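Re: Re: ligand-bound prediction request (bumping)

Still looking for help on this. To restate: I need the protein modeled with MU-OXO-diiron bound, output as structure tokens. Inputs repeated here so nobody has to scroll up.
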Amino acid sequence: MNAKVHELLNQQINKELYSAYLYLDFSNYFKARGLDGFANWYMIQAQEERDHAMLFYTYLQNENMPVTLESIDKPDKLLDSDMNVLRHGLEHEKLVTSLINDIYEAAYSARDFRTMQFLDWFVKEQGEEETKANDLISKMELFGSDPKGLYMLNQELAARVYSAPSLVL
Ligand code: FEO
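Reply:
Sorry for the wait, this slipped through. Here it is.
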């Protein structure tokens, strides 16, 4: 495997684990606010991020490439309002999309078609992640300022259940 592609894939394990850590922080924020539905939504988001990390980890192992685990940064977003938490979520997903694109670009330059095929799932997933984060902001804008609306939205988010990723390695 090309050295740059390897480095970026290995780095992505860390980025996805950081994402899990960040969403765990979001979940903790909403739990403390008494909004259990929002807390549930971000807890499941954190689980999905851990799954993403494991996909990169397993892919490198399957390719007989070394995996190096680095320290995970502390969640660094200022969680000072419900809406800001949601906005940080969207901003973070956009960053992850750009990281996936960078790996794709490196794989493309190296003619690493297997890695490109592996990354296809993540390209699609990132589209969905951004849509989900955007939808949540829209709903919050529409209903969040009304206590009854916030209550209903919290109920809706409480119903989110975890499902394992559709990509199996
Ligand atoms: Fe693993 Fe939310 O991107």
